[in-house]
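Consider the following assembly input.
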Amino acid sequence: MASRTAGHLTTAEPVLTAHAVRRAFGPTVVLAGVDLTIARGEVVALLGGSGSGKSTLLRILAGLDGEASGTSVVHGTAAVVFQEHRLLPWKRVAENVGLGLSGADGPGRIRRALAEVGLAERHRAWPAELSGGQAQRVAVARALVREPDLLLLDEPFGALDALTRLRMQILLRRLRAEHGFAALLVTHDVEEALLLADRILLLDEGRIAAELPVDLGPTRTPDDPAFGALRRHLLDRLGVPTT
Amino acid sequence: MSRTTLVEAPDEVTAAAPVVPRRQRPARRWRRVVSPVVLVLGWELAARTGLLAAEKLPAPSDVLATGARLSRDGTLGIHLLDSLTRAGAGLLIGGLLALVLGTVAGLLRLGDDLVDPPVQMARMLPHLGLVPLLIIWVGIGESLKISLVALGAFFPIYFNTYAGIRDIDERLVEAARTCGLGQAARLRHVVLPGALPSLFLGLRLAIGAAWLSLVVGEQVNAQTGIGFLMMEAREFSQTDVVVLGLLVYALLGLISDLALRVLERRMLTWRRGLRAT
């Protein structure tokens, strides 16, 4: 598996190119050759049922899986937000956000990142003192503070309650509009994919089974008839029957 | 008679519990002091009235008086210092060795395969039973006492270092990796702080084992130390000094445990947040 991070970048270049990514766990082939390109500033949702290998693919793209084959190159910087917040319990919120951060004005950048997720005043708190939604917002701030070209999101809101999830989706949309990062959003939530993504990929049996551009405009709501049609289409592809 | 207590007892509980559950705490703490105080007073009384022979067990006030006398003429200080030095040296040697080996076994697969099996085997030996062998190996001098303490301190620190490292959540290490932390930085920011609670537990157990080893070690040809003081006093039937020695050992254990707890609370503040939620 050749996974590398290219330092120099031109604007025409995609932010991520992956080619023929394969991964097997023993005899079980989870990814059977996946090709994937993400353009600069593009949000791609990766939809699939559980066990379809979508999280495995994200881990490979994040460089966390050494046993996959194929190539994957991130042109620029990437940051990851996992399903669980994965904050270090022994570091205060600000220290967690600034983990491994280098460069000038660290404290200022941490403060701004926390302010962007609405947690500026919680910088001295321990992770254990935060609610699930707050902890996940800190995890988002920890990714944002690195000013990534690509955000890898592994079901980032999957463990949150429905209301918090809606708020987080709105937050992510706002942050994306402000920062213009590209993102790969792994999710099993069709509505979430439709709300956030420019393009949706369906992963099935280790391959990209379908690709679907989402032309709903920047202000989209589930009430839009076009939204409903796309939703129905995706659910059909995922094998969810109409009642 | 049993009926009256049955009726009265629950009555008391229901009346007090729901209204002010907090106010019961201090009252209960005081209640826990009652039986020790009664015991000591009873001991004093029994010794004073001659019910307890002075050569079997002297009165607590006599023991305290002996303690005051021995600390005034400096005897207690000298012996205490020697005991502390032995315990400190043994703890340092055994503890450092355990820390290094436990870290190697906990972090590296090769270390685990090479280091852990012999340590597991050695653990089954009661280390105080090694005294005869240790006398043959290192003699009956200072090195015997220090080796014994080091052996006692080694195992708890080794096992807790090992377990502390092994129990670290792999997902946190992974998250640190995605934040760009290299191997050394991951050790410093994730592994060490993650293993710290276990390390403290190991240290507390090790200090307990160190005092125990010292008690045994100082009974073998010692010229100084609290254990020597007790052995010498036994020969002259100075029971008060023997009991005083026991008291000093107990106090040493208590004080070191307390100090460690304070240190633990200061260094593991983040766990207080954990408990609060």
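Residues 91-147 of chain A form one domain. Ask yourself how this observation constrains the way the partners meet.
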